[in-house]
Amino acid sequence: MKIVVIGGTGHIGSYLVPRLVRAGHEVVVLSRGNSKPYSSDVAWQSVRSVSVDREAQEKSGTFGLTIASFGSDVVIDLICFTLNSAVQLAAALKDKVSQLLVCGTIWINGISEVVPFKEEHMRNPFGSYGIQKAEMTDFLLKEARQHRLPVTIVHPGHIVGKGWVPLNPQGNFNLEIWKTIKAGKPLLLPNNGLETVHHVHADDVASVFINAMHHWSAAVGEQFIAVSPQAITLNGYAQAAYRWFGHQPDLEFEPWQRFSEKVSKEDAAATWDHIHHSPCASIEKATRLLEYVPRYSSFHAIEESVRYLETIGKL
Questions:
Q1: Which residues contact 62 (CB under 8 A, 6 or more apart)?
Q2: How far is it, in rounded angstroms, from Cα 238 to Cα 196?
Q3: The whole model's pTM is what?
Q4: Which secondary structure element, helix H or strand E, spans residue 180, and what is its range?
Q5: Do 250 and 217 contact (CB within 8 A), yes or no?
Q6: Mind listing the domains of the chain with CATH numbers?
Q7: Residue 34 pLDDT > 70
């Protein structure tokens, strides 16, 4: 098939696009500029790359028409963040593609009422990112029900993989935390460190998109969570990370207020966002309908990412 991937050089696209090429598809990748994928897979030599200013085209109302003009069988949108983006895309692609696959986020769940949470559970999103993604999801699923838009939505957890810094045991993205752990120095965690995070390797997310194409009848009009088999606590995460570097865990704990005063404002904001979500999601639906079997546990995926940071000299 001819497949257009919007935002195809990012975290997920770096793994998804080579998979599509190796499966024999004709792939067109759209990105904002000349950004390069995280992987140097030879498959990228067979990809057509097109630079598109999505923001500018959405303001002029032409983005959807641009996507439709490629005449593709499938469109995969990895960077649809707002309701307006979804509305424009749905209007332009209805009756023109066999499947529209869109990347959501587990952040649409917000504060969980039960865990692990599933796609059909009551959602309590908070924060602009989660709320906007929830609005996008609701609209697209409504279009599927009422107007037969062949859409599938995939909701990843905290994406990790070679090439970028993973969410760390403190619940933020400060690279210095990994240096602290590698050196065996004390690490401060909020509260008792029992809040959860739920990672997923980017290649496992890519497999959900691929499987959704293969299981078209089960995937169209549906949403699927894409995470590792189990969430992990910050405390358990930190202990495992120390052991990766041959150290005994050296953890300190402070109630949230004191913790937030001892770290930077940026780190505190990121940690607050993650511990208030404390995601713990189920992959039962994706496993049952799409045969999703993640290759990576949370720890396996994160350790691979961290080891890569070592090899490139960032640790």
A1: none
A2: 12
A3: 0.97
A4: helix 175-182
A5: no
A6: 2-160+199-228+281-290 (3.40.50.720), 175-196+231-279+298-311 (3.90.25)
A7: no
